[in-house]
Write a structure and sequence with these properties.
By secondary structure, the chain is mainly alpha-helical. Helix content is 56%, strand content 2%. The protein has 22 helices and four strands. Strand 1 and strand 2 form a beta hairpin. Helix 9 (195-212) runs parallel beside helix 14 and helix 12 crosses helix 16 (328-342).
Length: 472
């Protein structure tokens, strides 16, 4: 009843916002607070209460109200991020703001006239901080607040001090490197799992991905000539959390083991809160490592310097940090984590469906490709390691599985690119002499031989398929 009543009042507030012909005063907090203080507690209810058609109507007929709604939501997130001890109500309010912005922002990106909105300087407000806040673009405030919330004690990370307002940690001076989410690269301390923290992180990262998606709404020529300022600020030195964010995202992905429990069918009885987090973390890594980003003017006026000085590329510290990883134990951790997830679909058991299967192989292959491209030391480590075949076999498996699906053409391209990259080294050819024994996983002709034979057979299957497609 409570959830239904909340959804109804939320729906009523949005309809009222849409039907208003006059701009609603930004200082009318009683009205605006309806959207995050008393909103639905489920994201599905949130999306159902805000139909896409009505967002477009609001965008066209009441642009002032839509702009105020976005500003107030970002301002609410900024205030909570500045609070040294957010209450449970504050945390739910932050999640509601995140969900609302995740719903609205894609419809703003649809309209070219709305895209500069988040990078414009807001008019000064009648408060003591107006001189400061008015000079900062809304997008910069949003990204900074979201990154702060990703390291907020008792909200997305475990607190290192005793609970209570008297021992609250100051969010402005907190060292987020002490709150990295998972042990691994650059961090040795393992944190206890917390499902609520994982869910909150996932919600926030999804909003970040929504912000990064602006490029999808551009034409091909625009996408090539314009820099994604969202990604540039997130991965640049202006973001004080960029190092712990990079480490947290990478470690969460590489430490994830979907089959960690020995109990069969456990994934059917328990909800895995870590898998959605791993999926969005993978997507953020793929996006931020995709291209070198030139230095930007964070006021949104465009690039200051289009040249790239090193492998890190401009201000993209994600690329810089990835290129600087050099310890063998870090390489082993990354390679083991990627191969574990890539080989998950090939896992064979006596009980059908008893182990959890994950579907993130395409993002994993993109991540592996980018790491090899950015960090040559990692690629050489892979080639001299016996686990290089643990990368090859799942790639061949996914090539076979995707060969008849036109929508998986991109997956086939990245798989073939990785094989081409690895095949340029002698050590890869030497490793192919190892006998191949796991014959049941592939939908190919049974054979007895080594991994080189497997590579040849799969290559022939693909070439024969392409020939038949061209002949038909």
């Amino acid at each position: 009843m409570g959830s239904g009543q909340s959804s109804l009042s939320y729906r009523t507030a949005f309809v009222e916002l849409t039907n208003k012909t006059q701009p609603i005063d930004a200082n009318n907090n009683e009205f605006w607070d309806q959207f995050w203080c008393d909103g639905p507690t489920k994201i599905s209810d949130m999306f159902a209460s805000v139909p896409g058609s009505e967002i477009r109507t609001l965008r066209e007929e009441s642009p002032g109200n839509l702009a105020t709604l976005c500003y107030k939501a970002v301002d609410c997130l900024a205030q909570i991020a500045e609070d040294s001890f957010p209450t449970i109500q504050d945390q739910q309010t932050a999640i509601n703001c995140v969900r609302l912005l995740s719903r609205i922002i894609p419809y703003l990106f649809e309209d070219p006239e709305w895209r500069p909105f988040f990078w414009s300087v807001l008019p000064a407000q009648n408060d003591s901080n107006s001189d400061v806040t008015s000079s900062v673009p809304l997008a910069q405030t949003l990204i900074s607040s979201l990154c702060d919330l990703l390291f907020c004690p008792d909200f997305t990370v475990h607190s290192l001090t005793k609970p209570g307002p008297d021992n609250a940690e100051d969010m402005h001076t907190i060292d987020s490197c002490e709150y990295i989410w998972e042990a691994g690269v650059g961090f040795a301390q393992s944190t206890p799992p917390n499902a609520q923290h994982d869910e909150n992180r996932t919600e926030i990262i999804r909003l970040l991905l929504v912000c990064f998606s602006e490029t999808m709404y551009l034409t091909q020529s625009e996408a090539r000539s314009e820099v994604n300022k969202w990604i540039s600020f997130f991965s640049g030195p202006e973001n004080r959390h960029v190092l712990p964010l990079f480490t947290s995202l990478l470690n969460v992905v590489c430490a994830y083991n979907p089959s960690s429990s020995s109990l069969p069918y456990n994934h059917l009885m328990f909800t895995d809160s870590r898998e959605p987090l791993v999926e969005v973390a993978l997507q953020v890594l793929c996006v931020t490592l995709e291209a070198e980003i030139p230095s930007l003017d964070t006021t949104g006026k465009g690039p200051l310097n289009s040249s790239t000085s090193d492998v890190g590329g401009g201000t993209n510290l994600f690329l810089n940090y990835m290129s600087r990883i050099h310890r063998d134990e870090d390489f082993s951790f990354i390679l083991e984590g990627i191969t574990r997830l890539l080989n998950n679909p090939l896992t064979q058991t006596y009980l059908p469906g008893s182990t959890k299967k994950v579907e993130m192989h395409q993002e994993l292959l993109i991540l592996f490709w980018r790491i090899c491209d950015v960090n040559k030391k990692f690629m050489f480590y892979v080639l001299k390691s016996s686990r290089v075949l643990d990368v090859l076999v799942p790639i061949l498996y996914h090539l076979v599985e995707a060969r008849n699906d036109q929508s998986q053409l991109g997956l086939m391209h990245i798989g073939i690119f990785i094989i081409l990259l690895l095949s340029g080294e002698r050590n890869f050819g030497v490793r192919l002499n190892k006998p191949y024994t796991n014959r049941t996983a592939f939908d190919i002709t049974l054979f007895t031989g080594n991994h080189a034979d497997l590579l040849i057979i799969v290559s022939f299957e693909l070439l024969a398929l392409f020939y038949r497609m061209q002949s038909s």
